[in-house]
Design brief:
alpha/beta; Rossmann fold; 7 helices; 17% strand; binds NADP nicotinamide-adenine-dinucleotide phosphate
Length: 250
């Protein structure tokens, strides 16, 4: 088992699902959890090779990980991901609903099909993943929903995308109340603009401009925050939105 960084309580022996972990922020979360000793389920939708690459990298450092395909916009697949994890490892400690896709669209251009896809991936799928997870999560477990700091601004041109994240944030608050009796915490981490290697130059410059640090966030910046939220040190934190945007101002 890989050794933890020693800065927080270890995740040794814990089983964590990270949805959308074949790249970007999800990948960084999976790698950080593994460093902290967790067994990680690297979920992906289409990119099997990328997911396997993440798994191989974790294993090369002595960690334990498996890749599991599931389209998180499909309720049956979201449920299957949780059930298969539980069947394979006999326990579930952490669910991170990270899978997402930035789908900016002006109101006048949005189609009903696109709107439904956005909501299915970033609100409905995570909701039912949480429902399934709630049945098997260990007492003291953790749910983290990845939203977006832009949800807290008047950013235009992505209202459906940010609306789906707002729904996820609202689920977080109520479910924190529903699951607290078992010591399970439910929190939102809302990243600011984060450099996953695919941002357009305009968007990169925008992100740098609104940052007091004058740089973009890195996936590791977000992963380290999520690692704290799932740690024992964060046991008194639930129903919260953690603004992981590097203090961005809009
Ligand atoms: N990057 C940012 O600036 C930023 C800012 C705020 C919030 N966020 C949020 O952070 C999360 C991760 O974003 P990212 O930028 O790291 O994204 P990313 O690099 O594009 O990675 C997206 C991940 O989600 C997976 N995915 C996409 N559709 C899926 C589906 N239907 N079912 C299961 N997995 C699916 C992808 O898997 P495949 O490779 O198999 O397609 C991939 O692993 C998202 O929720 C996003 O909204 C990102």
């Amino acid at each position: 088992m890989a050794e933890g960084k020693g800065t927080m309580a270890s995740l040794s022996g814990k089983v964590a699902i990270i949805t959308g972990a074949s790249s970007g922020i999800g990948r960084a979360i999976a790698e950080r959890f593994s460093q902290d000793g967790a067994i990680v389920v690297v979920n992906y939708a289409k990119n099997r090779e990328k997911a396997q690459h993440v798994v191989t990298g974790i294993q090369a450092k002595g960690g334990k990980a498996v890749a599991m395909q599931a389209d998180m916009s499909q309720v049956a697949e979201a449920r299957r991901l949780v059930l298969d994890t539980f069947k394979q490892f006999g326990r579930l400690d952490i669910l991170v609903n990270n899978a997402g896709k930035f789908m900016p669209k002006l109101l006048v251009e949005m189609t009903e099909v696109e709107f439904d896809q956005i909501m299915a991936l970033q609100a409905k799928g995570p909701y039912f993943a949480m429902q399934e997870a709630a049945k098997v999560l260990k007492d003291g477990g953790r749910i983290v929903n990845i939203s977006s700091e832009l949800t807290h601004t008047n950013f235009a041109g992505a209202t459906a995308h940010l609306g789906s994240k707002a729904a996820l944030e609202q689920f977080t608050k109520g479910l924190a109340q529903e699951l607290a009796s078992r010591g399970i915490t439910v929190n939102t981490v809302a990243p600011g603009i984060t450099d996953t290697g695919v941002l357009t130059e305009d968007y990169r410059q925008f992100g740098i401009q609104i940052s007091p640090f004058k740089r973009l966030g890195l996936p590791k910046d977000i992963a380290d925050v999520v690692a704290f939220v799932v740690s024992d040190d964060a046991r008194w934190l639930t129903g919260q939105i953690i603004h992981a945007g590097g203090g961005m101002v809009m």
